[in-house]
Amino acid sequence: MTVAAQRRLGGSAEASRSRLPVAGGIAAGLLAVLIATWLTRPGPTPGIPMPGGLVEYGLPVSRLVVDLAATAALGLSLLPKLLGFDDPDRTEPIAARARHWAVLSALIWCAAALVATVLSAAEVQPGTVPDVADYVDRIGSGQGLVVSASCALACATVGMLAVRFGEKVPAELRVLVAGFGLLPIPVTGHASNWYWHDVTMVSMELHVIGACAWTGGLAALTVLLVRDRALLARALPRFSRLATVALIVVGLSGVFNALVELLLSPDRAFPESLVTTRYGWLVLAKTVFVVVIALLGANIRWRLLPAISRQAPTALAKWATFEIAVMGLAFGVAVALTRAPVT
Amino acid sequence: MFEVARPGASGRSPIVRTAVVVLIACAASLFLATPAQAHNVLIGSDPREGASLPATPGKVTLTFDQAVRPDFARIAVTGPDGAQYEQGDVGVSGDSVFIALRPQGPAGAYVVSYRIVSNDGHPVTGTVPFTVGGTAAGTPGAAGPGTAPGSGTHLSANPPGLGTPPPVAPSGGAWVWGLLVATGVLLALATLGLVRHDRRVGLAAGGTASAGAVSPQRTRTANPGTGTTGGGS
Fold it and tell me: What is the pLDDT of residue B204?
């Protein structure tokens, strides 16, 4: 009895410690999105009812939940690819947990996307019960959210099949379905302009998929693998290559999109708008976060990875938790950035 | 031959697979992308911001940098006495929105407030102040005496649902709410099913290392647990 209780206590403490990165990422994201939303909130408009606080802050938060849940779903779907399939006895317990959490993430993703749809409808129809059908019918970003919710549901269905039938459901299929569900998310934000629309859309898609694969992969590794040095020695070098590609893609596409948005703003001159507009502040904040993330990633890549490859004990959990928290900040700012005008 | 090729392929596979996903994503995004995705920005107005006019203008026009969608657009004009002076519905032509004004407003500071739904689906709000000063003697003759009282009475009925687009059949809304509730129930059921499966397999978090020791105990405690959740729901 006491032994079982102790084991359960020890297990729960261990589990809670391994969940720390997730909690840190979510908390950082919430903090960033609330601050950034408060910073970019519109001024009062006499005579026109404004949406209440629940909508004003609930909508960005629900969008953040969509992003984070989708990131988790993609990262957990990627995990079997990082683990490899040549040692199923060792990897299967972890892959099984990844499949479970992937389905849960997809379900949260779907629910959050639907909540975001309702709140978006409420945002443009303040003072009334929102007519969601009318909103989705007329506004493209509503359609984007509904498509994203449907993709999340498809992702959950495929994930359920994977829970039932194990790795016989190909990991590529799960990655593909989760990645496809990410595509409508940029459609629901702006950060792309009328004139260079096609280029900015593609660059935005690359940005979102790169950021999600990067953050999701790191979070999945940190939460599920950090105690298993042998598997970590195998999976982390693979992830490190993925992260390098993601860093380049995310950095270039992010800078490109921000510059387009700032350059094409009709009433603000460019170099000043970086410091004089709230949008510019958020761009600068996100750039700083990316630099910090790159430094933390480089630290893991060059200082910790050799030791991890030797299966020696390292402080990976601490560093990765720190990196995920900064990624969470970047996600939170990103949500506000997709909504803020260049003012 | 196949065995030799396999390790190399698995070593590179995450990047190759990711590249494939990304390429497919790009291809798909060309289909998914909506034609207009940009944030409207106010670039001009009539009356201009801070303008000082001899009399209340007949209408207020706001000009944006690109075409404005008519959906959910609202304009309100608040007078110095706090009353609303706009009348009728918001009109949209190309990149500008406009609304008619009640004539014979008092002299003082007016504020034009607007909220349009930008082409990317986000609301864009703002205000344009202007003042009406001096003598307003010319206006009564200029504005038709017949239209003013008529539109005035029309206005008195208007403020609650001011300038909103034509109402949509409530059945459409109810249908969607039903669908949302149904989806919510589906999600809850799926979560419940997943959690029960989780318990049955003994895969709860942290249980991997000692899975063999924990799982029989888990299954024993799981049955009453799931029984109570089943009874509760």
Answer: 47
Question: Would you say the pTM of this structure is higher than 0.80?
Answer: no
A62 and A184 in a single domain? The answer is: yes
- Assembly ipTM: 0.73
Q: What angle do CA A98, A102, A104 make, to 5 degrees?
A: 120
Please, which residues 128-167 of chain B have a Cβ atom closer than 8 Å to chain A? none
Strand, helix or coil for residue B65: coil
A45 CB neighbours in chain B (<8 A) are 76, 113-115, 125-127
Mutate to test the interface with B, among A146, A205, A261 (most CBs of B within 10 A): A205
The DSSP H or E segment spanning A275 is helix A270-276
Indicate whether A139 and A267 sit together in one domain: no
CA distance B129 to A300: 55
Contact A97/B203, CB-based, under 8 Å? yes
Task: Using the 3D structure, point to which of A188, A215, A243 is the last residue of a domain.
Answer: A188
Q: Which two tokens stand for residue A67?
A: 């992003």
The answer to whether B21 faces chain A, any CB pair under 8 Å, is yes
Please give the residue of chain B at the shortest CA–CA distance from A245: B15
A194·B36 Cβ contact <8 A: yes
- Dig out the tokens for B156 from the structure: 């008195």
Tens-binned pLDDT, residue by residue, of chain B (233 aa) = 333 333 334 444 556 666 666 566 555 554 444 333 456 778 888 888 888 888 888 888 888 887 788 878 888 888 888 888 888 888 888 888 888 888 888 888 888 888 888 777 778 888 888 888 854 433 333 333 333 333 333 333 333 333 444 444 444 556 677 778 888 888 888 888 877 777 776 654 444 433 333 333 333 333 333 333 333 33
Tell me if B194 and A163 make a contact (CB, 8 A cut-off).
yes
Tokens representing A169 are: 């459901």
Please report whether residue A99 resides in a domain.
Answer: yes
How does pLDDT run across A15-71, given as a tens digit for each residue? 666 778 888 888 988 998 888 888 878 778 888 888 888 888 999 999 999 999 999
C-beta atoms of A45 and B24 within 8 A = no
Best of B10, B18, B84 to disrupt the A interface (most A CBs within 10 Å) is: B18
How many CB pairs below 8 A link A and B?
231
Of the candidates A341, A205, A335, the one whose C-alpha atom is nearest the C-alpha of residue A262 is: A341
Is residue B76 within 8 angstroms of chain A, CB to CB? yes
Q: Measured between alpha carbons, how far is residue A180 from residues A209, A298, A338, B23, B29 in Å? A: 9, 29, 20, 11, 9
Report whether A320 contacts A18 (CB < 8 A): no
Same domain as A76, residue A53: yes
**Is B219 at the interface with chain A, CB within 8 A?**
no
Domain assignment of residue A208, given as a range: 198-343
Number of structural domains chain A divides into: 2
Beta bridge partners of B74: B115
Contact list in B for residue A253 (CB cut-off 8 A) is none
Residue B127 has its nearest CB partner, among A43, A110, A202, at A43
Mind listing the pLDDT tens digit for each residue in B89-143? 888 888 888 888 888 888 888 888 888 887 777 788 888 888 888 544 333 333 3
